[in-house]
TrEMBL record, chain A:
Domain of life the protein comes from: Bacteria
Domain Cytochrome oxidase subunit I profile: 27-595
Family indicated by similarity: Belongs to the heme-copper respiratory oxidase family.
Annotated GO MF terms: cytochrome-c oxidase activity; heme binding
Name listed for the protein in its UniProt record: Cytochrome c oxidase subunit 1
The entry's keywords: Electron transport, Heme, Iron, Membrane, Metal-binding, Respiratory chain, Transmembrane, Transmembrane helix, Transport
GO term, biological process aspect, one: aerobic respiration
Record-annotated membrane-spanning stretches: 44-66, 93-119, 140-158, 187-209, 229-255, 288-308, 320-341, 353-378, 390-412, 424-450, 462-485, 505-531
UniProt keyword DNA repair present: no
Upper lineage: Bacteria, Pseudomonadati, Bacteroidota, Sphingobacteriia, Sphingobacteriales
GO annotation, cellular component aspect: membrane
Compartments (UniProt record): Membrane
Keyword Magnesium: no
Membrane topology (UniProt): Multi-pass membrane protein
UniProtKB/TrEMBL annotation, chain B:
Membrane topology, from the record: Multi-pass membrane protein
Function: Subunits I and II form the functional core of the enzyme complex. Electrons originating in cytochrome c are transferred via heme a and Cu(A) to the binuclear center formed by heme a3 and Cu(B).
Keywords: Copper, Electron transport, Membrane, Metal-binding, Respiratory chain, Translocase, Transmembrane, Transmembrane helix, Transport
Record-given protein name: Cytochrome c oxidase subunit 2
Biological source species: Mucilaginibacter gossypii
Transmembrane domains' residue ranges: 31-52, 72-92, 120-140, 160-180
PROSITE patterns the UniProt entry points to: COX2_CUA, COX2_TM
Membership in a protein family: Belongs to the cytochrome c oxidase subunit 2 family.
Length: 629, 376
C-alpha cells in the first residue's frame, strides 16, 4: 500500500514539473525540498559534516588557549574581535566555545548527522521500501534541523556571545542572565534551537520506527534485518521516548528565565542582590536533562555500533558473531539506558541511596556493552579481512569503545566518582567512547556507503592516511587526559595557571593541542577526498564490497522509489559470508535457498520443516551419488 | 614544526609587548609561513600518492599484483599494536606518576583501594582485548587462497562472556555500594567539627563555629554587604561564629563540611582528601571526612616544601570558575587550637553597626524597618 502511495507522489511531481526541465523534478524539489530519503540523507550528512568542521575549529581555538595560556595571538583578535581582546580568548568566550563545541558535536553531528544520514539512507534501502513512511515529514525533519543549526550558529553574532554554561546548561547559571554573559540572548537562542532540534529528531524518529515496522519487503522479518537497521530502529525508539523530556526541561527553564517562575531556582543571592525565586530545585533540571542525556549517549553510539557490525562482517567475509546476542544486547542497552541517568549526579547532593541504586543499574549496562565487544572480536577471528577504509574505521571504533568503555566502569562506581566527577578523566572517557568511537562509526559508514550515496568511490589511499593519522592523534589527545583527571584537574577551566599543582600539566596540554591540530588538519584530507570524489571519483559498481544486504541490489543511478521493478523478496539473513559449499564467499539476501542447495545447513531451516525435508533429501541423494561413484 | 611555533610565539610576544594600549599587530608573515608549511605537507602527500600509484602501475605492467594494501595495512596494525602498547606503558609510568598522592583522609584510603582493584581488572581486559584485536587483524588479513571460517554463533562461549563480566561487575558493585553508603551516610558525632563552606561567584566563604561548636543558622534574605552569608543573629549560636580565610583542619578529627551556594551551582572539591560535593543554592548538603595526614607530613612525603592542600570549584560557575580556590591546612590539634584562638568573629564591627543601626531604627520609628525585622 505504502509502495503505491510513493509511486503516486512521484507521479505527481512528474506532472507538476516535468515540462519545466529536462529532468523529472525541478532543482528545488530535487535538491532542496526533496522528499526522497536518499537526498535527505545526503542533506543530513553534508550539514552534519559542516557542523562538525565548525565544532572542530572551535575546539582548536580553546585548545590553543589551554596550551598557551600566557601568550597573545593578535590573529585571534582579528578573527574574533571583542571575544578575544588583546590577542587572548576571554574567559567567558572560552566557556562559550566549549559549550557550543559540545552541543554541536553531541546533538548536531552525532545525533542528527549520524542517525539522520544513515537512518534515512539505509532504512528504506535495507528493509526494502521505496521511501520512508512519510516522506513529507522526513523533509520537515531535515529543515527543522537546518533551522536549528542556523539558530545555534547565529548566537555567535549576538552582543554577549553564545550560551556558555556548558552543553548541560545547568541552572541557575543558565537561568540567570546576569550570572554570565552567555546566559543572556545566547542562552535564549540555544533553547530555541534545541526545541526545534528535538522537533526534527522526533519527526525523523517516528518515521524511522514506522518504516521499519510497517514497510519491510516480503520475507524481511525482524530477525532477517541487518544490525544497522536494528541499531537505527532502537536508537529511534530511544530518541522518541527521551527527547520529549528534554523539551519539558527546556520549557520550564524558558519559564524561569522569562516568566519569573521558580522551577529550578530558590534562595539565590546574585552579586549581593536577593532574587525573588523560592521553592525550586536546580537538581530537578539535572534529572530532566540526564533523563534524556544518558539515553542520548546511546543514541549516539548505537548507530555507530550497528554500522561497525555490518562493515566488520562484510569486510571480514564472515557472519557477525552471535547475531542474536548482538540484537539482544542492543535491546538491553536501550531498556537499561533509561534507568541509569543518575550516575551523572552522584555528587550533586542527591540522596545517597539513590546514588547507590544508580550505581547498580549503571554497572549492569556494562554487561551488554562487553558482550558486543567480545562478539566483534570473535567476528574478526579466522576471518579473511579486507582493509577498506570503512573497515579500518570500524576497527578503530572497537578499539576506542574498549578504551573508553572501561573507564565508564570507574565512573559508574559512585565511590570512585567522588574524586573523578567533572575532571579530565570524564573528558577522556566520553571523548574516547563518543568523540572517537561514535565519530569513527560514522566515518566507517561514510566510506562504506559513499558509493551508494554518490555512485562513485572515495580514494582508498587517502582514506588510509585519514584513518591512521586520526586514530593515532585521537589516542594522543585523549589518553593523557585520564592522568590529568587522576591528578584532580577539573574540566572547563580557562587556564591552569592559577594553581601551583596544575602547572606541571602545561607540557602535556601543549602536546595534546598539537596532536589535536594535526588531527584537525587531517580532516581536511577527508573533506578533499569526500567532495572531490562526489564529482570525480571512480564510478562505483553495483555491489562494490560484495555485500549481502538489499541496498546493493538497487541500481547505481538513483531513482525515486529505489528499485526499477518490483522490490526484491528476502529469503535469508544478511550474514551468509563464506558459507561452506557456496560458490562465492557471499550470498545476498535475495537468493533463495533453493538456489544454494550445496551450502544450506540444517540450521537455516529451524522454523521451516518443509525446507528442512528438502535439504535432507538433497544431502541424502548427494551421499547416494557419492557412494555410487 | 614545534620550533617554528616558539619562534612565532616569541615574535608575537615581542610585537605585543611595547604598545599595550593599542591593539596588538597581527604577524602576517608568521602566519603565511605556517600556511606555506601546510601546503608543502599537502604537496608532499600528493607526490607520495602519485609515486605509489606509478609504482603500483609498473608492478601491474610487469604482470605482478600491485601493492598489496591489505598486507600493508595488516603490518601497520601489528606495528601500531607494539608502538601503542609501549605508548600506553610510557603514559602510565610518565603521566601516571604525576597523579594525586596517597589519600589524606580515612575514607580516601578505601576509595584508593577500590581504585586499584578496578584499575587492575579493567587494565587486564584492556590489554587482552586490544592485543587480540590487533593480532587478529594481522593474522587473518586477506588472502585469495583462504576462506573465512563460517562461524555464526557459539552459545557456550557467548554465555561465558556474558556471565564473566557480570560476576566481576557484581563484585565491584557490591563493594562500591557499601563503601559509598558508608562514606555518604556517616552518622553525626558530637565532636564533629562543623565548618560552613559557602560558594558564590567567585569565592568561597568559610565560617567556623565558636566555643559552642554550633554554627548559627543562615537565611539568604539576610544577606547584606557586611553579612555576606546572611547569618541570623536572632539566634544565640551565631554570635561566637568565626570568619576565617584559610581552612585549618586538625588531623584525625571528624570534619563535617556544611555546603551551600548562593548564586549558581559550585562544587567543593578537595581531591587530596577524595572529597567532592556540589554546592547548590537552596539545597544545603554536607560531607564528612577525617583528614589523616598533616600538611607538614605531606610536604616531607612529597619532598615539596611548598605543597598545600587546596579546595577548589569543580562545577562550571561563570567566567572566573578557573580561579576559585582556598588553601587547606591540616595541622596538629595544638596548632589548630592556637590558630582558632586567633580568628576573628564573624560578627565584626561593621556588621555590629549595621545590626545596631537596624535595631535602633527599629525602636525609634518606622513600620518599614519593622517589617524587615519581622521578615528576619
Ligand atoms: C560502558 C558503559 C558506560 C558506563 C558505565 C558509563 C558511565 C559514565 C558515568 C558514570 C559518567 C558520569 C561521570 C561523571 O560526570 O562523573 C559518564 C559520563 C559520560 N559518558 Fe559514559 N559510560 C558508559 C558508556 C558511554 C558511552 C557508550 C557513551 C557515549 C557514546 C558515553 C558518554 C558519556 C558522556 C558524554 C559523559 C559526560 C557527560 C558530561 O558530564 O558532560 N558513556 N559515563
Ligand atoms: Cu550516562
Ligand atoms: Cu564556582
Amino acid at each position: 500500500m505504502s509502495t503505491l502511495a510513493v509511486h503516486d507522489h512521484a507521479g505527481a511531481h512528474h506532472d507538476e514539473h516535468g515540462h519545466e526541465h529536462h529532468h523529472d523534478q525541478s532543482f528545488l524539489s530535487k535538491y532542496v525540498f526533496s522528499m526522497d530519503h536518499k537526498m535527505i540523507a545526503k542533506q543530513f550528512l553534508i550539514t552534519g559534516i559542516t557542523m562538525a568542521v565548525i565544532a572542530m575549529i572551535l575546539s582548536i581555538l580553546f585548545r590553543i588557549q589551554l596550551a598557551y595560556p600566557d601568550k597573545t595571538f593578535p590573529l585571534l583578535t582579528t578573527l574574533l574581535g571583542r571575544f578575544a581582546p588583546n590577542g587572548r580568548i576571554s574567559p567567558d568566550f572560552y566557556l562559550a566555545l566549549v559549550t557550543i563545541h559540545g552541543t554541536i558535536m553531541v546533538f548536531f553531528v552525532l545525533t542528527a548527522g549520524l542517525s539522520g544520514t544513515f537512518a534515512n539512507l539505509l532504512i528504506p534501502l535495507q528493509v526494502g521500501a521505496r521511501d520512508m513512511a512519510s516522506p513529507f515529514m522526513n523533509m520537515l525533519s531535515y529543515w527543522f534541523f537546518f533551522l536549528a543549526s542556523v539558530i545555534m550558529l547565529s548566537s555567535f553574532f549576538v552582543q554577549k556571545g553564545p550560551a556558555s554554561g556548558g552543553w548541560t546548561i545547568y541552572p541557575p547559571l543558565s537561568a540567570l542572565p546576569k550570572a554570565m554573559p552567555g546566559s543572556g540572548e545566547g542562552m535564549t537562542l540555544w533553547l530555541i534551537s534545541m526545541v526545534l532540534f528535538v522537533a526534527s529528531s522526533l519527526m525523523g524518529g517516528i518515521n524511522y520506527v514506522s518504516t521499519v515496522l510497517n514497510m519491510r519487503t516480503k520475507g524481511m522479518d525482524l530477525w532477517k534485518m541487518p544490525l544497522t537497521i536494528w541499531a537505527l530502529f532502537l536508537t529511534a525508539i530511544l530518541g522518541i521516548l527521551a527527547f520529549p523530556v528534554l523539551v519539558a526541561g527546556v520549557v520550564l527553564l524558558i519559564f524561569d528565565r522569562s516568566v519569573g517562575t521558580s522551577f529550578y531556582l530558590s534562595d539565590i543571592v546574585l552579586n549581593g542582590v536577593q532574587q525573588p525565586f523560592e521553592g525550586g530545585s536546580p537538581i530537578l533540571f539535572q534529572h530532566l536533562f540526564w533523563f534524556l542525556g544518558h539515553p542520548e549517549v546511546y543514541i549516539v553510539i548505537m548507530p555507530a555500533m550497528g554500522i561497525s557490525s555490518e562493515v566488520m562482517s562484510v569486510n571480514s567475509r564472515k557472519p557477525i558473531f552471535g547475531y542474536h546476542a548482538m540484537v539482544y544486547s542492543l535491546i538491553g542497552i536501550t531498556v537499561l539506558s533509561f534507568i541509569v541517568w543518575g550516575h551523572h549526579m552522584f555528587v550533586t547532593g542527591m540522596n545517597p541511596f539513590l546514588g547507590g541504586v544508580f550505581m547498580i543499574t549503571t554497572l549492569i549496562i556494562a554487561v551488554p556493552s562487553a558482550v558486543k565487544t567480545f562478539n566483534w572480536l570473535a567476528t574478526l577471528w579466522r576471518g579473511n579481512i579486507r582493509f577498506t577504509p570503512a573497515m579500518l574505521f570500524a576497527i578503530g571504533m572497537v578499539s576506542f569503545f574498549i578504551s573508553g568503555g572501561l573507564t565508564g566502569i570507574f565512573l559508574g562506581n559512585a565511590t570512585l566518582d567522588i574524586n573523578l566527577h567533572d575532571t579530565y578523566f570524564v573528558v577522556a572517557h566520553f571523548h574516547l567512547v563518543m568523540g572517537s568511537a561514535a565519530i569513527f562509526g560514522m566515518l566507517a559508514g561514510v566510506y562504506h556507503w559513499f558509493p551508494k550515496m554518490f555512485g562513485r568511490m572515495m580514494d582508498e589511499k587517502l582514506g588510509y592516511l585519514h584513518f591512521w593519522l586520526t586514530f593515532i592523534c585521537a589516542y594522543l589527545v585523549f589518553f593523557p587526559m585520564h592522568f590529568m583527571g587522576l591528578d584532580g584537574v577539573p574540566r572547563r577551566y580557562y587556564a591552569f595557571t592559577e594553581f601551583a599543582s596544575m602547572q606541571k600539566w602545561l607540557t602535556i596540554n601543549t602536546f595534546v593541542t598539537w596532536a589535536a591540530i594535526i588531527a584537525a588538519l587531517t580532516q581536511f584530507g577527508f573533506l578533499y577526498n569526500f567532495f572531490v570524489s562526489i564529482f570525480k571519483g571512480q564510478k562505483a559498481t553495483q555491489n562494490p564490497w560484495e555485500s549481502n544486504t538489499l541496498e546493493w541490489t538497487t541500481p547505481v543511478e538513483h531513482l525515486h522509489g529505489n528499485w526499477p521493478g518490483e522490490i526484491p523478496t528476502v529469503y535469508r539473513w544478511p550474514y551468509d559470508y563464506s558459507k561452506p559449499g557456496a560458490e562465492e564467499d557471499y550470498i545476498p539476501q535475495t537468493v533463495p535457498y533453493s538456489q544454494t542447495m550445496s551450502s544450506n545447513l540444517p540450521h537455516d531451516f529451524e522454523d521451516n520443516p518443509a525446507g528442512l525435508e528438502e535439504l535432507n533429501k538433497f544431502t541424502s541423494t548427494l551421499k547416494a551419488n557419492e557412494q555410487v561413484k | 614544526m614545534l620550533l617554528g611555533t616558539n619562534l612565532l610565539m616569541a615574535q608575537t610576544a615581542a610585537g605585543a609587548a611595547p604598545g599595550q594600549e593599542e591593539a596588538p599587530k597581527v604577524d602576517w608573515t608568521g602566519i603565511a609561513y605556517y600556511v606555506l608549511i601546510f601546503f608543502l605537507i599537502c604537496l608532499g602527500v600528493a607526490i607520495v600518492g602519485k609515486i605509489l600509484k606509478i609504482y603500483d602501475l609498473t608492478l601491474k605492467m610487469q604482470g605482478k599484483k600491485g601493492i598489496k594494501w591489505n598486507t600493508v595495512m595488516a603490518v601497520i596494525c601489528i606495528v601500531f599494536l607494539f608502538v601503542g602498547l609501549y605508548g600506553a606503558y610510557w603514559s602510565f609510568t610518565e603521566q601516571g606518576s604525576m597523579t594525586l598522592p596517597e589519600a589524606a583522609s580515612a575514607h580516601g584510603v578505601k576509595i584508593d583501594e577500590m581504585f586499584t582493584v578496578t584499575t587492575v581488572l579493567t587494565m587486564i581486559v584492556f590489554f587482552v582485548t586490544q592485543i587480540l584485536l590487533f593480532t587478529f587483524l594481522f593474522q587473518y588479513r586477506h588472502s585469495d587462497k583462504r576462506r573465512a571460517h563460517f562461524l555464526p554463533h557459539n552459545n557456550t562461549i557467548e554465555k561465558v562472556w556474558t556471565i564473566a563480566p557480570a560476576i566481576v561487575l557484581t563484585i565491584l558493585v557490591v563493594f562500591g555500594f557499601f563503601t559509598w553508603q558508608k562514606i555518604m551516610n556517616s552518622e553525626n558525632l558530637k565532636d564533629d567539627i562543623n565548618i560552613d563552606v559557602t560558594g558564590h561567584q567567585f569565592a568561597w566563604e568559610l565560617r567556623y563555629p565558636g566555643k559552642d561548636g554550633v554554627l548559627g543558622p543562615k537565611d539568604f534574605r539576610l544577606v547584606t554587604g557586611a553579612n555576606l552569608l546572611g547569618v541570623n543573629f536572632k539566634k544565640k549560636s551565631s554570635f561566637d561564629d568565626l570568619k576565617v580565610d584559610t581552612m585549618y583542619l586538625p588531623v584525625n578529627k571528624s570534619i563535617r563540611l556544611n555546603i551551600l551556594a548562593q548564586d549558581v551551582i559550585h562544587s567543593v572539591y578537595m581531591p587530596h582528601f577524595r572529597v567532592q560535593l556540589n554546592a547548590v543554592p537552596g539545597l544545603p548538603t554536607f560531607f564528612k571526612f577525617t583528614p589523616t595526614i598533616t600538611t607538614a607530613e605531606m610536604r616531607t612525603k612529597l619532598d615539596d616544601p611548598k605543597f598545600e592542600y587546596t579546595l577548589y570549584c569543580n562545577k562550571i560557575c561563570g567566567g572566573s570558575h578557573y580561579n576559585m580556590q582556598k588553601v587547606v591546612r591540616v595541622v596538629s590539634e595544638a596548632e589548630y587550637q592556637s590558630w582558632l584562638s586567633r580568628q576573628k568573629p564573624y560578627l565584626n564591627d561593621a556588621l555590629r553597626k549595621e545590626l545596631h543601626f537596624a535595631a535602633a531604627n527599629n525602636e525609634q520609628s518606622g513600620a518599614s524597618t519593622n517589617r524587615l525585622a519581622l521578615n528576619n
